[in-house]
Design a protein that fits this description.
With 55 residues, this protein is an all-alpha fold. 75% of the residues lie in helices and 0% in strands. It has helices at 2-24, 26-34, 42-50.
Length: 55
């Protein structure tokens, strides 16, 4: 089982920068603002994106 955990951790380390850029890129905040989400801080728009962009 430890080999799978190591593989999962290596995969996460490789993919996390791409994942984070989708949520924290300036264009993501512009899009969230255009959809009516609060973009004054990062958390409200972050959770809106995680929820599937539903309002």
């Amino acid at each position: 089982m430890t080999e799978y955990r190591a593989l999962a951790r290596r995969t996460w380390h490789q993919l996390e920068p791409i994942h984070a850029s989708l949520y924290f890129a300036p264009q993501a905040f512009e899009g969230a603002g255009a959809l009516g989400y609060d973009v004054a801080s990062r958390r409200p728009s972050y959770f809106a994106w995680r929820n599937g962009w539903r309002s």
